[in-house]
Write a structure and sequence with these properties.
By secondary structure, this protein is of the alpha/beta class. The chain is 33% helix and 22% strand. Strand 4 and strand 5 form a beta hairpin. Bound molecules: adenosine-5'-triphosphate and magnesium ion.
């Protein structure tokens, strides 16, 4: 089976191996995540990108075992955190991991904060739950955390309610809460999507600074490639429940291998270039209840849409050069010699691809 190799094994903090997650719905079985593997290295940021519904959040929620069951179920695979499998760990162990070792930041700050308590109460609750500090010690730690995330006048602010704060401020509070227990891994699921661009940049910069200071690892889930370029070390590209490409950030941007990644990058506005209009990938994301046969991207793919093999045989993720994986028959270096020959016997000459 193909492995996603991003770094030395001994640097790996979290290793998701062949994860599959399903939802039993009235309409049928949704395969939300299908054989996903990725590694998160100590002190690094791994970005997970892909269009809506491709399985980014479900993968992340699985790490903390927060998938609603039923209808959801981890159907297979392993999630190794410091070598312990979180899929099979008991609930008591998971509680010691959640918020302590692994913290999660969600997109919408209002849903993560309780409107009837002050932000101080909520940070203190997180601190008391996970650390030895109680009462005044926990309170002054909360003030300290607000200061760390750049909130001016923290002694005053700590007594405010969430509705008294702006969206950017509330997201800082969430980050303060997440960091209050000194986690080794933060999973940030679209942490800035609801915020305006300036605040977004500030929050991401803050996360980067705190990450460096505390040597944390970050899983950054986003569909904004600009955010990826500025924040990630490594990148995982997902499409329709699977990983289609992985690599380091420079590799992904300078030399995208998979036609899906190439399409995503073409839809990114480039600084200094005047484009008439952005190219978006034609077609729509497939319905998870009726994924196409073969490569799930083939109906939208400039190469695969009329290619007999792409239409029938799904390519697995393979390492095609050091540190770079792709799941496309047409990525240079992907096919084995045997597969190449078998193809030409069966279908005739391979398609010529330009560029
Ligand atoms: N509770 C649920 N019941 C049924 N299906 C679900 C449930 N939660 C998620 N799914 C399905 O799982 C698939 C993956 O969803 P997920 O939320 O991981 O997408 P995503 O990549 O995070 O998308 P977005 O960018 O919109 O956040 C989708 O097809 C979604 O409809
Ligand atoms: Mg999501």
């Amino acid at each position: 089976m193909a492995e996603t190799i991003l770094m030395n094994d001994n640097d790996v903090l979290l290793s998701i191996r062949d994860l599959s997650v399903t939802f039993h719905t009235d309409e049928g079985l949704v395969r939300a995540v299908n054989g996903v593997s990725y590694d998160v290295c100590a002190g690094k940021t791994l970005a997970v990108v892909g269009e809506s519904g491709c399985g980014k959040s479900v993968t992340a929620l699985s790490v903390l075992r927060l998938i609603p069951d039923p209808p959801g179920k981890i159907a297979g695979g392993e999630i190794l955190f410091r070598g312990t499998d979180l899929v099979t760990a008991d609930e008591k162990y998971m509680q010691s991991i959640r918020g302590n070792e692994i913290a999660m930041i969600f997109q919408e700050p209002m849903t993560s904060l309780n409107p009837v308590y002050t932000v101080g109460d909520q940070i203190v609750e997180a601190i008391e739950q996970h650390q030895d500090k109680k009462g005044p010690a926990a309170w002054s730690h909360a003030v300290e955390m607000l200061k760390q995330v750049g909130i001016a006048d923290p002694e005053q602010r700590v007594m405010e309610y969430p509705h008294q704060m702006s969206g950017g401020m509330r997201q800082r509070v969430i980050i303060a809460m997440s960091l209050s227990c000194d986690p080794s891994l933060i999973i940030a699921d679209e942490p800035t999507t609801a915020l305006d661009v300036t605040i977004q940049a500030q929050i991401l910069e803050l996360l980067r600074d705190l990450q460096k200071k505390n040597n944390m690892s970050v899983v950054l889930i986003t569909h904004d490639l600009g955010v990826v370029a500025e924040n990630a070390d490594d990148v995982v590209v997902m499409y329709a429940s699977r990983i289609v490409e992985t690599g380091d950030v420079a590799g992904i941007f300078d030399d995208p291998l998979h036609p899906y990644t190439q399409g995503l990058l073409r839809s990114l506005p480039r600084v200094g270039s005047v484009q008439e209009r952005l190219e978006v990938i034609g077609g729509t994301v497939p319905d998870p209840l009726a994924f196409p046969d073969g490569c799930k991207f083939h109906p939208r793919c400039p190469i695969g849409s009329d290619e007999p093999r792409c239409m029938t045989v799904e390519p697995e993720l393979r390492e095609v050069k050091p540190g770079r994986c792709s799941a496309c028959w047409y990525t240079p270096g992907y096919e084995t010699k045997e597969e190449f020959e078998l193809y030409e016997t069966k279908y005739g000459k391979h398609k010529e691809i330009s560029g």
